[in-house]
Design goal:
Dirigent protein, mainly beta, 48% strand, single chain, eight-stranded antiparallel barrel, 9 strands, AOC barrel-like, disordered C terminus, signal
């Protein structure tokens, strides 16, 4: 076999393997609501740490909160429960308010039950829409990547309740069809 034939065969083989890799991934769009309660008997957001500087900082620098919010199918807190948004909020900017958010979207019912999507990013509350990176996942969402868009859907200051709307665009699937074990 000539040199050109071997190179051609290798190119075809590589293209076929890359095609298999691309086809092993899919894109899933998810839309849900997060019920955030910052005060009262059913509080879901709690302060767990603060630095010496936090009390005097205009940006709450050094403050750390943990979150365990209910995820629902609609904006109504009594609608179908899909799972929990669990993670932490860290105030890590000395100059402006822009907390770092690290969350796991933990699905507890439906087609994605038992699966997790991990989000990370900066939450600039002055922006109408905030964007987080999807940096991983488990279960159905193994090898996840993509992005999430969130916005404040409603605020009830008297009850300390916020509802956030989330839309996720998740690329996920097998890591590769080339090296399955």
């Amino acid at each position: 076999m000539g040199k050109l034939s071997i190179i051609s065969m290798l190119c075809v083989l590589i293209l076929a393997m890359l095609g298999g890799f691309c086809n092993a991934h899919k894109v899933t769009k998810l839309h849900f609501y997060v019920q955030d309660i910052i005060s009262g008997p059913n509080q879901t957001v709690w302060e767990v740490a603060r630095a010496k500087i936090t009390s005097n900082s205009p940006t709450s620098f050094g403050l750390v909160k943990v979150v365990d919010d209910l995820i629902t199918a609609t904006s109504d807190a009594n609608s179908e429960a899909l799972g929990r948004l669990q993670g932490q909020i860290t105030f890590a900017d000395l100059e402006e308010s822009g907390p770092v958010m690290n969350f796991n979207v933990v699905f507890k019912s439906g087609a994605f039950s038992g699966s997790v999507i991990t989000l990370s990013g900066r939450n600039d509350a002055s922006d109408k829409y905030r964007e987080y990176a999807i940096v991983g996942g488990t279960g159905v969402f193994r090898m996840a990547r993509g992005h999430a868009i969130t916005s404040t859907y409603s605020v009830d200051s008297a009850k300390g309740r916020f509802v956030f709307e989330y839309t996720l665009y998740v690329v996920h699937g097998k890591s590769s069809t080339l090296f399955d074990m």
